[in-house]
Design a protein that fits this description.
Elements (H helix, E strand, L loop, with lengths): L9 H10 L16 H25 L6 H10 L11 H30 L9 H31 L2 H18 L13 E6 L5 E6 L3 E6 L5 E6 L30
Antiparallel strand pairs: 1-2, 2-3, 3-4
InterPro entries: PRP4-like, PRP4-like_sf, WD40/YVTN_repeat-like_dom_sf, WD40_repeat_dom_sf
GO molecular function: U4 snRNA binding; U6 snRNA binding
GO biological process, one term: mRNA splicing, via spliceosome
Length: 257
């Protein structure tokens, strides 16, 4: 026998089919996905899942432990207090099943309410919020467009591998030329960002603790600590007109997020 690699020509396929070596499936050989066996198996699976959920609900129910309380509860539901051959354990289990059956519609109603709460809805916002978002968009969209144009031009003019190699060389040059002047613990949580003020007299840091700290340059002494966010501060930016050190000549510190 020989094994041949490659595509099978249509003529060879027809010849093999006529000789009986290849049995192509016909319309009668296609199995319908919705057969009776599959429908029966699907129904059995749904019944098993429903029974499992019902047992889970029964285990979570608060059922009286005392036999006297169990009988009183059965009497409230209008059920037989005692069945022939039934002990305290079986009686309590029967009460659990009865209580699960009585509360089943309530559980289904709660499930429907939870599904209804997930529906999409809109609330009318304030005019001040709309104006703020419009100003943010007018400030952000042109800058994002300029950034994308610059990145596209850079990709078209320079090979990505050459650019990456140039950046690596520059980072290596910075590492060799940098010297640690001071060392200071920035925060109890990890720092996320750091930036010098426009006049280079202060250095601002943000951290996961939500605090923003300002440090004097070059002594690296903390001069101001403010709460920037309830959870985490991921970045910090200076106003272009910010100069001097706190209290900034009587001006207030304004935060935006």
């Amino acid at each position: 026998k020989h094994i041949h690699y490659g595509g099978i020509e249509a003529g060879s396929l027809d010849k093999s089919g006529s000789s009986g070596n290849i049995m192509a499936p016909g319309d009668n050989d296609i199995v319908d996905t919705a057969t009776e066996d599959m429908m029966r198996a699907r129904q059995q699976h749904e019944d098993a899942v429903r029974a499992f959920e019902q047992k889970s609900q029964q285990r979570q129910m608060a059922v009286p432990t005392g036999d006297v309380q169990v009988k009183a509860k059965l009497r409230e539901f209008g059920e037989p207090v005692c069945i022939f051959g039934e002990g305290p354990y079986e009686r309590r289990d029967r009460l659990r099943t009865i209580m699960a059956g009585r509360t089943a519609p309530t559980m289904e109603a709660k499930r429907q309410e939870a599904t209804a709460d997930e529906d999409l809805f809109y609330t009318e916002g304030l005019e001040e919020l709309l104006e703020a978002r419009v100003k943010i968009a007018e400030w952000s969209i042109p800058r994002a467009n300029q950034r994308l144009i610059k990145e596209r031009r850079q990709r078209a003019e320079e090979d990505p591998l050459e650019y990456e190699e140039r950046v690596d060389k520059f980072c290596g040059f910075l590492q060799k030329s940098m010297v640690a002047e001071v060392s200071q613990v920035g925060d109890e949580r990890p720092l996320t960002h750091g930036k010098f003020s426009p006049d280079a007299q202060l250095f601002g840091t943000s951290s996961w603790s939500g605090f923003i700290k300002l440090w004097k340059v070059p002594s690296c002494e903390p001069t101001l600590t403010i709460r920037g966010h309830e959870d985490r501060c991921n970045s910090i930016a200076w106003h272009p007109g910010c100069k001097g050190t706190p209290p900034f000549e009587g001006k207030q510190v304004r935060l935006a997020s």
